[in-house]
Amino acid sequence: MCVDRDGCEIEGCSSSDEVRTLSGSMSPGLKSNPDLHPCKPGQKFRAALLKCRSPAAAAGILSFGNVLNYMDRYTVAGVVQDIQRHYDVSDSGIGLLQTVFICSFMVAAPIFGYLGDRFNRKVILSCGIFFWSIVTLSSSFISREYYWLFVLSRGLVGIGESSYSSISPTIIGDLFTNNSRTMMLSVFYLAIPLGSGLGYILGSSAKVAAGDWHWALRVSPALGITAGTLILVFVPEPKRGSADQMGGRIKHRTSWCCDMKALAKNRSYMFSSLASAAVSFATGAFGMWIPQYLVRAQVVQKTAKACSEDICSSTDSLIFGAITCVTGLLGVVIGAATTRFCRQKTERADPLVCAVSMLGSAIFICLIFVVAKKSIVGAYVCIFIGETLLFLNWAITADILMFVVIPTRRATAVAFQSFTSHLLGDAGSPYLIGLISDALQESYATSALWRFLSLGYALMLCPFIIVLGGMFFLATALFFLDDREKAEKQLSQLSLPTSSVKV
């Protein structure tokens, strides 16, 4: 009798034949073992699934899920003109869609952070994806009399997506370490611009193909159900801290109150969270309003007409979506490579790279509003460079968190960083920009030029917020080394016997 690597009997093999042992070596003529039994088909299938649960495959699936998260979020932005005409709402009313989404997202984030540090993470992720997929599909059938219900549905989608954004980075953090973790987190956060850009493209393309903008909300749910199933089947549930030097031997867990006090005292974490809020403010406002701004610019230049049909032109949404995809890829790759190189020069490379990229981005974003009135191509060039520099810091910010926060409180840290960045960032920025735009154009509601200028003046708030974010990253650089050393010491303490632990 022969034995395969799963410990099962191989039919048609005699006891005198050469046998592969469980260790992988070759030995002749093993005697039959009464403990061995023929493998059932289900056992072989399960063994095959286990072999597919590699860290790289898990990171790929989680990144795919993150793409879908952001694709669903920005599908609405890709058809915003159609939604505004269908429900007959103002700029501030349409901006409310993103604000309600982000508010529910950030309120749910701390709850999922608490759950993610204590319960099975992949089950929470899958349930969240299934939930937002069902709600998104249902929202595509809401009639024009119930705009409030459509707004409410976006809030429910935000709750489902919050579970994913709060927990999934911590699984990657427990599967990889050092430069490999930086690379995998870069791939994961590449999903933000990639998914956002695909959201514009999906929304515009599905609307044109079906002749109805509602179909833009009926594609991503099917992909979401697929992603949730893949996570349940193929993504492992690693031990918290298993990839860190002593994380696998952590014997103690601190309380939630203790976690929150430690995070509040962690200066690198707090300043990088405030910097993330600045990024969120700008990306939230841009994601909702830049395509609309460029449409109004073309109306002023008389190269296009204001939308007066049921299906509005989607060219600018498609172009902006494609630019977001490309700049996201470039930004994340350049950010990872630059940080890797700069770490050889200084240990403070991570926050310094983020600070420089933010300050550079503010310059080119200011130029958008200078050149848009005369040249749409020039505006797209400025958008391309500005977004590339802005997207440099996404993966690096996550890596900063992994360095300065111990594994057992990372999900909580990610969740509250998400809460802070959304509360101070994109929770209010789309609505605020729309509100300022409405206020500025009250006296000139029929003027196409003033509608364009008022939205541009409102969006000019973003570069100043980005500069403020760069300052916060510089502050992070001052405390980064001290906070990283404290995290390493605390991780060592949590690995000691009970009598030696200091809380």
Order of helices and strands: EEEEHHHHHHHHHHHHHHHHHH
Largest sheet: 2 strands, antiparallel
Give the CA-CA distance, first to last residue. Answer: 56 Å
Computed Rg: 26 Å
Fraction in beta strands: under 5%
Q: Give the strand line-up of the largest sheet.
A: 1-2
Give a count of the beta strands, DSSP E runs of length 2 or more: 4
Query: In terms of per-residue confidence, which ranges show pLDDT below 50 for 5 or more consecutive residues?
Result: 1-32, 498-503
What spatial form do the alpha-carbon principal axes imply?
A: globular
Could you say which structural class the secondary elements and strand pairing correspond to?
mainly alpha
What kind of oligomer do you see? Answer: single chain
- Count of helix runs: 18
Helix content: over 70%
Mean pLDDT metric: 78
Compact summary:
By secondary structure, this protein is mainly alpha-helical.
Which features does this protein show?
503 residues; mainly alpha; two-stranded antiparallel ribbon; 18 helices; 4 strands; 72% helix
Give the helix/strand layout.
Layout: E1 2-3, E2 9-10, E3 18-20, E4 26-28, H1 41-52, H2 55-78, H3 80-87, H4 91-116, H5 121-139, H6 147-175, H7 178-210, H8 220-234, H9 256-265, H10 267-301, H11 315-342, H12 349-371, H13 376-391, H14 393-404, H15 410-424, H16 429-440, H17 448-459, H18 461-494
